[in-house]
Design a protein that fits this description.
alpha+beta, Jelly Rolls, 7-stranded antiparallel β-sheet, 6-stranded antiparallel β-sheet, 15 helices, about 45% helix, SPRY_dom, ConA-like_dom_sf, B30.2/SPRY_sf, Ran-binding protein 10 isoform X2
Length: about 475
C-alpha cells in the first residue's frame, strides 16, 4: 500500500477513535455531575423529585386566575373587587368605547386543551358582549376579533370575528342567563366556543405565540362573571378532552406501518450492540410471522455492516459486563491491537478505570491501590482525565463506597458505558464504514432522536405551544 495512503488511513482512524473516546468520556462526566449534585443535597433532591411527581405539566404552567386590573380600557369597564366580574357603567357614544379586559396570564399551552367560561348576568342595553382570545398588547378599546391576532365570539349577532371588523356566521346569539365558553384545542390547532355547555363552532388557530382569555362589554349595564376553573364548568371539559384523546389515538392507529419495519429496527439494535444470542432467538421466533429482511438505511448502513465482528463484540460485552476486564484486554490485544496499542487512549483509560473499580468491588483494596498507582499516573499527567481519575480514587475513601457520591461507579450502568465504548471502537474498524458517528448509536436510537427533534421543531414553528413529549 502507498505510504501516503497508509498515513492518511492511520490519521482517519485516530480521529475516529478520538471522537468515540470523547463521546463516552462525556457520558461518564454527565453521570458524575449528576451523582455529585444528588449527593450535595439528597433531601432537597428527594423533595424536588416528589414535587415533580405530584405536579403535572399542566400545573407547572402559571394559569390565568383573575382579570388584569393593571391594563385598563379607561372608564368603559369596571372590574369587581373579586377580579372575576366586569360591567359597563356608562352609555357608549362611539364604536371604540369598548370595555375590554384580559386575564392576568395567557392561556397555558403545555396541555391538550385550555378553556374558560363567562356567565352573562345582565345583557344590558344592546347585549354587545364578547368572549375570545387576544394577543399581548391588544388595544383595550377594540372588541376581540376586530384587530389582527385576536378572536371574538359576539353575543349580539352570534358572529365570529377574527382580525377584521366583519364577522362570519358562527353560532347563536347569547344574552342574560347564558354561560359562554372559549377554549383552545392544541392538538387540532383550533379555537372553539360553547353556549350553555354545547360547542357552537370552531375556528383554525393561525396566531402564533401567547393568547390571553379576553372578555368585552360594550353597552350600558352589561355585566358578566368569569370562571377560570375555580368553579365547575357548565361545559363538560373532561369528556371533551377524553374525546379528543380518542381521536388522536384513532388517527395514530390508522397510520400504516409495514409489519417488517419494527422487525428490522429491533434486529439492527441487537446487531449494533453485539447481542448475538438474543438476535439468534429473535430470528427463530420471527420466522413464524415474518420473513427475514435486509434492513438498509439511506446512508448505506447495511445489515452486513451491522453484522461486522458480531461474535467478537458479543464476547467482549459479556466479559466487561461480568467484570472480567483483564480478559477483555487480552481479547482486544489479540483481535484488535490497533485499538489498545496507544496506552493513553480514551478506550484504554476506560478499561483501566473499570479494572480498578472491579478490584474495589471485590474488596481487593491493596491490589486496587497498587493498580491505580501503576496505571493512573500517566492519565493524571495528561490532564484530560484528572476529574475521572479522582472519582475512581475516591472509592477508596469510603467504608461503604456504594453509598457515596461516587457509588455510581459500582453500578452495572458503568460497565455498560465501557462495553458500549469498546463496541463502538470495534465497529469503527470496519473498512466499509462511511460515517464514524454511525458507531455511536443504533438505528433505533437515531430514530428516537429524530422523532424528538421533529417534535421540538413542530413546537417551535407553533410558537412553542402544544403538548409536551
Amino acid at each position: 500500500m502507498d505510504a501516503s495512503l497508509t498515513l492518511s488511513l492511520s490519521h482517519t482512524n485516530s480521529e475516529t477513535q478520538d471522537l468515540i473516546g470523547s463521546y463516552f468520556l462525556d457520558q461518564w462526566r454527565l453521570k458524575s455531575k449528576s451523582a455529585a449534585a444528588k449527593s450535595e443535597s439528597v433531601a432537597e433532591a428527594e423533595k424536588t423529585q416528589l414535587m415533580e411527581v405530584e405536579e403535572s405539566e399542566d400545573e407547572k404552567e402559571e394559569l390565568p386566575t383573575e382579570l388584569d386590573t393593571l391594563n385598563s380600557s379607561g372608564g368603559f369597564s369596571i372590574v369587581g373587587p373579586d377580579k372575576l366580574s366586569v360591567h359597563y357603567p356608562n352609555v357608549n357614544l362611539h364604536g371604540h368605547d369598548v370595555g375590554v379586559v384580559q386575564a392576568n396570564r395567557p392561556a397555558p399551552c403545555k396541555r391538550l386543551v385550555y378553556y374558560f367560561e363567562i356567565s352573562v348576568k345582565n345583557a344590558g342595553a344592546k347585549g354587545q358582549i364578547a368572549i375570545g382570545f387576544t394577543s399581548p398588547g391588544f388595544k383595550l378599546r377594540r372588541q376581540p376579533g376586530w384587530d389582527p391576532n385576536s378572536y371574538g365570539y359576539h353575543g349580539d349577532d352570534g358572529l365570529l370575528y377574527h382580525g377584521q371588523g366583519k364577522g362570519e356566521a358562527f353560532g347563536p346569539t347569547y344574552s342574560t342567563g347564558d354561560t359562554v365558553g372559549g377554549g383552545i384545542n392544541y392538538a387540532s390547532q383550533e379555537l372553539f366556543f360553547t353556549k350553555n355547555g354545547t360547542i357552537v363552532g370552531t375556528v383554525f388557530k393561525d396566531v402564533k405565540g401567547p393568547l390571553f382569555p379576553t372578555v368585552a362589554v360594550h353597552s350600558q349595564n352589561e355585566e358578566v362573571t368569569i370562571n377560570f376553573g375555580k368553579d365547575p364548568f357548565v361545559f363538560d371539559l373532561k369528556a371533551y378532552e377524553a374525546q379528543e384523546r380518542t381521536k388522536q389515538h384513532s388517527t395514530i392507529e390508522k397510520l400504516s406501518i409495514p409489519q417488517n419495519a419494527s422487525y428490522g429496527i429491533v434486529r439492527s439494535y441487537l446487531q449494533h450492540y453485539g447481542y448475538e444470542d438474543t438476535l439468534r432467538m429473535f430470528d427463530i421466533e420471527s420466522k413464524s410471522t415474518l420473513p427475514p429482511i435486509s434492513f438498509i438505511q439511506e446512508n448505506g448502513f447495511t445489515e452486513d455492516m451491522n453484522m461486522y465482528s458480531l461474535n467478537q463484540r458479543k464476547v467482549l460485552r459479556q466479559l466487561i459486563r461480568s467484570g472480567e476486564i483483564g480478559d477483555a484486554f487480552g481479547k482486544l490485544r489479540e483481535w484488535y491491537p490497533q485499538i489498545v496499542q496507544d496506552g493513553t487512549s480514551a478506550i484504554c483509560f476506560l478499561l483501566h478505570c473499570q479494572n480498578f473499580i472491579e478490584l474495589v468491588r471485590a474488596g481487593k483494596l491493596e491490589e486496587a491501590v497498587l493498580y491505580g498507582r501503576t496505571e493512573f499516573e500517566k492519565f493524571y499527567k495528561l490532564g484530560d482525565y484528572d476529574d475521572l481519575v479522582k472519582d475512581c480514587a475516591a472509592l477508596l475513601a469510603y467504608e461503604q463506597p456504594q453509598k457515596s457520591s461516587v457509588g455510581y461507579l459500582l453500578g452495572d450502568s458503568q460497565r455498560e458505558v465501557v462495553a458500549d465504548a469498546v463496541n463502538a471502537m470495534i465497529l469503527s474498524t470496519n473498512p466499509s464504514l462511511k460515517d464514524s458517528k454511525d458507531c455511536l448509536h443504533s438505528c433505533l436510537e437515531r430514530l428516537l432522536r429524530q422523532l424528538n427533534a421533529c417534535f421540538l421543531e413542530k413546537r417551535s414553528l407553533n410558537g412553542d405551544q402544544g403538548l409536551e413529549n
